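can u do me a favor
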């Protein structure tokens, strides 16, 4: 399969590198926390989603799924691009 170069904005950092061990039971990654950029994000191996670091989770921050209608509404309000 040929490699495809993807144009990304300059302010977007490199993609996360994930290394799985013991058949996917344990993983290491280099993704920073999406909330504070201080600590490492928490990788949920059951669904493959990065959650905020443990400190941000203790403050109540969570990763949520925003549905299609809600994304449309947020774009109309100017919150999303």
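np, heres the sequence
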């Amino acid at each position: 399969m040929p490699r495809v170069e993807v144009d990304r904005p300059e302010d977007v950092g490199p993609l996360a590198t994930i290394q799985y061990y013991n058949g996917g039971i344990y993983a290491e990654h280099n993704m920073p926390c999406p909330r504070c950029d201080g600590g490492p994000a928490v990788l949920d191996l059951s669904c493959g989603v990065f959650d905020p670091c443990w400190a941000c989770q203790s403050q109540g921050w969570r990763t949520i799924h925003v549905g299609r209608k809600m994304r449309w509404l947020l774009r109309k309000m100017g919150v999303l691009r």
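The chain is about 20% helix and 15% strand. hope that helps!!
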